[in-house]
Amino acid sequence: MTHEEAAKRIAHLTQEINHHNHLYYQESRTEISDFEFDKLLEELIRLENQFPDLLFADSPSQRVGGAITKEFQTVAHEYRMLSLGNTYTLEELQAFDERVIKGLGHTDFEYFCEMKFDGVAISLVYEKGNLVRAVTRGDGTKGDDVTANVKTIRNIPLTVKGENIPDKFEVRGEIFLPRREFEKINTEREKNGEALLANPRNAASGTIKMQDSGVVAKRRLNCYFYQLLGENIGISKHDEAIHLIEKWGFNVSPTYRKVSKLEEVLDYIESWREKRFTLPLDTDGVVLKINDYDQREELGFTAKIPRWAIAYKYQAESAETELLSITYQVGRTGAITPVANLSPVHLAGTTVKRASLHNANEIERLDIHEGDFVFVEKGGEIIPKITAVNPEKRKPLAQPISYIQTCPECGTTLIRKEGEAKHYCPNAASCPPQVLGRIEHFVSKRAMDIDSLGTERIRALIDQGFIRNYADIYDLEEKQSDLLGLEMSQDQYEKESGGLLYITVQKALFALTESISSKQIQDFLDEKAELPLLETLKAFQEQIRIWKKKVPANVGMVDRLIHQLKDHPELPKMEDFVPVALVLDLFLGRKVEWSQLLESSQKHGTVHRILLDLNLELSPELTERIKKLKANTFQEGVISNMMEGIKASKAQPFEKVLFALGIRNIGENTAQLLARHFGSLEKLREASSEQLLEINGVGETLVHSLQEFFLQPENLEIIQRLKDQGLKFEIEQREDAVLGSALAGKRILASGKLKNFKRDEIVDFVQAHGGQYLSSVSKNLDFIIEGEDMGPSKKEKAQKLGVPLISEEEFLRMVNS
Ligand code: IVH
Q1: Which residue in 162, 286, 427, 486 has its CB near the most CB atoms, within 10 A?
Q2: pLDDT value at position 349?
Q3: Which comes out higher in pLDDT, residue 245 or 316?
Q4: Of 39, 70, 102, 116, which residue is the catalytic one?
Q5: Which of 705, 606, 333, 646 is nearest to 470 (CA)?
């Protein structure tokens, strides 16, 4: 490539990359994948290396990081970084406004309103148009020099071009991790079993102080700027400054507004109170600044804060509402979580109907009684919490909440371990949600890979008694005919703490009326989300009239439902749900005793099962009406699909089966290791603790888990059944997989990019030559194959632990010799 061609290509690549950065940061969208983006960047870096005179200070290649900072230099701020006074009420804001008027002696001034961004304050110094320093706030007078890290933030200008750029200036703003990125990182961390980051603010401040700027570059930090400082910039107002830095290419949040009186400030505050949750970052209030610089000077400062600016903080909103009932959820591990069902109330932009109560201690701490009025608050969390009860509104004779003694799912007596807050259901073997967790693991992609058995279907099969453990899955084939017509989804049901079955109001209204679609009903209910149940039902009758769906039965049926609810005040209330017994009574009242309906709906989990239990002769018309209460049912297509998936799973290799068994502490890698080492389940079972512990990667905990698993007769019985069904409990010898033993007994890791292997190829290659591939740097390694661009922190760790690094060529020589 000639110099001229290179210059052209570099210009093109620079433009392309800048374009994609702009899309990403300014428009929150992408046109190319991360991989394609990296390819462009790699090409640019290659060309710049080849033609160093074509490397410009503002090249996007300058943002990939790589520099390591051992200790951040402390740097003094030229202008102090001040904090702001806080206000929480409109009265306090009024008082501020009055102080300003008094200070200036007139009302001829403007306010500039901005959001208060919740991130990390940063100050950037530019000289001759180039970014020379980025410093954190520190104690306000001096902070840490984090320039290398800040340069990796792709939309921070490295150089500022244009006319009349001051020789030296400073811009300040707030670095933040967009909520979307924060969630992405945490999802990834959760998958890898790493500790989660607490919130985007901490994540941003942790990131900006990282030593390896290469890692910083990978976290997509962003920054909003809100201040310009310097001598002779030629502006006299804050709005001019904001427009100027926008023009220079600094990222300014478009949320600002210039106003001329306090009322408009209050408008601004109100307009963002709820809308702020749609912004890409967390905000905790509004900053209000006097626009004119001379007026700012006139007002001056107190010791630490300006008299010309103030923050208004939105308070966590609180609302009062009635506690209707408490339901208890059983988690995968058997842990019980009480949930409060509330009369719907409006709170910070949403309607709240439920709040978590965490555990029995929390209920005791709040001293909640039945039917209490409670205060709910929404902090940073999505799920609101109950902060207190209103004792003045307590009903006479109201009883304190008595915590359940038995599991709402399986009836087993709950236990509470010493020192633990939560109650547990000890019935791991057959409590439905616990069984569900194990079966979901068994069928998951990386285990038996039966994707036709999704959560919904498994749950339906468990709840209706078809499967109790994973071996039962293989008996389903014989039961195909019973599956037909079974209800698939349980979403429309809820069990109240006494075990009584409830159904969504939506299903109830759908079944009770004619010629109104399910969607119409849902839209109506969404719109009325804030009304309590009885009022919703009355509004629905009105709506039937408006829709002109006045089939005589429609309004009448809803009327009967309203009466039913009023006639049975003894039944606990749950917003959005009504007792199934009440609805069925409307259809079957003449045929079945109320007590029988109650009993049956306490015993069973679906309308389908209740009807089977009652064993009634129903007219086709009535059958059709009641069918509208049910969820989708298993049909032939679904059933044959499931059967195929189940059959195909029998071919999964032993290591997958071993992983699928869900033995505690046996992850995918351990299962593979054990399967290859022992070759069969029989041998694994017979292995002594000593034999197990000899294997690298097996520790006491794992040995204990294995012993515990094999000690349970139920487990052995299940394994026998799986064997009888033809599942693989032995490894299949594949001769082609063994290429040699040059690496026998060696524990190896590769790091960085290899020339001859892709990531999983090197793993297979090592194993095929008798070696063991480990996944992280540790002293157990015999050596590390050092690829191109091996991470510096890994390298450092390897050196510290004394693990030798060898080149890829050396490695290949070792194998081939
Ligand atoms: S102006 C003297 N504007 O809040 C005024 N600060 O409590 C200097 N902050 O350290 C700050 N959003 O980290 C200003 N729109 C905004 C802001 C903002 C967030 C932070 C900033 C500052 C702290 C002061």
Answers
A1: 286
A2: 58
A3: 245
A4: 116
A5: 646
CATH topology of domain 747-816: Rossmann fold (3.40.50)
- 3-state secondary structure at position 344: strand
CA distance 296 to 293: 5
Q: Name the closest-CA residue to atom 23, ligand 1.
A: 83
Give the model's pLDDT for residue 560: 94
Q: Is 249 left (phi over 0), alpha (psi -120 to 50) or beta?
A: left
In the numeric block, which tokens belong to residue 639?
Answer: 């059933």
Considering the domain 3-63, what is its CATH architecture?
Orthogonal Bundle (1.10)
Q: What is the CATH number of domain 650-724?
A: 1.10.150.20
Q: Give the residue extent of every domain in the chain.
A: 3-63, 80-313, 432-485+635-648, 493-627, 650-724, 747-816
| Cα atoms in the Cβ-side hemisphere of radius 13 Å centred on 210 | 22
pLDDT (0 to 100) of residue 667: 87
- For residues 124 and 119, what is the distance between their CA atoms, to the nearest angstrom? 15
What is the C-alpha to C-alpha distance for residues 35 and 37, in angstroms, rounded to an integer?
5
Query: If you compute the radius of gyration of the chain from its CA atoms, what whole number of angstroms results?
Result: 33
Structure-derived torsion over alpha carbons of residues 682, 688, 693, 699, reported in degrees to the nearest 10: 80
At 586-603, the pLDDT tens digits run 999 889 999 999 999 999
Q: Identify the burial level of 817 via C-beta atoms within 10 angstroms of its C-beta, where 0-12 means exposed, 13-18 middle and 19 or more buried.
A: exposed
Ligand 1, atom 22, lies closest to the CA of 83
Q: Are 172 and 229 in contact (CB under 8 A)?
A: yes
Alpha helices per DSSP H over 650-725: 654-660, 668-678, 681-686, 689-693, 700-711, 713-724
Is the pLDDT reported for residue 435 higher than 90? yes
Contact 174, 200 (CB under 8 A): no
| Ligand 1 neighbourhood includes 114 CB (under 6 angstroms) | yes
Catalytic residue list contains 39? no
Phi, psi of 540 (to 5 degrees): -65, -40
Tokens of 182: 């924060």
Alpha helices in 354-431 (DSSP H): 360-366
CA distance 506 to 718: 41
Please tell me what DSSP assigns to residue 422. S
pLDDT score of 347 more than 50: yes
Name the pLDDT band for 233 (thresholds 50, 70, 90). Answer: very high
In sign, the C-alpha dihedral spanning 802, 803, 808, 814 is positive
User: What pLDDT, in 10s, does the model give residues 361-371?
Assistant: 999 999 999 99
> pLDDT of 380-393, one tens digit each?
556 788 999 999 88
Closest CA to 168 of 123, 122, 224: 123
The architecture (CATH level 2) of 432-485+635-648 comes to Orthogonal Bundle (1.10)
Give the DSSP letter string of 556-574.
HHHHHHHHHHHH-TTSPPB
Ligand 1 pocket mutation pick from 272, 287, 293 by most atoms within 8 angstroms of CB: 287
Which contacts qualify for 680-687: CB closer than 8 Å, 24 or more apart?
A: 680/654, 680/729, 680/730, 680/731, 681/654, 681/719, 681/729, 681/730, 682/729, 682/730, 684/658, 685/710
Identical topology for domains 432-485+635-648 and 650-724: yes
Of ligand 1's atoms, which has the minimum distance to the CA of residue 116?
A: 12
* 258 has pLDDT over 60: yes
Taken in order 271, 272, 273, 275, is the CA torsion positive or negative?
A: positive
The pair of structure tokens assigned to 48 is 């710049």
Per-residue model confidence (pLDDT) at position 699? 87
Superfamily of domain 80-313: DNA ligase/mRNA capping enzyme (3.30.470.30)
Task: Indicate whether residue 174 lines ligand 1 (CB < 6 A).
Answer: yes
* DSSP 8-state class, residue 73: P
Rounded Cα distance, 411 and 57, in Å? 70
Alpha-carbon gap, residue 627 to 481, rounded angstroms:
19
pLDDT at 735: 47
How much is the pLDDT for 758?
A: 79
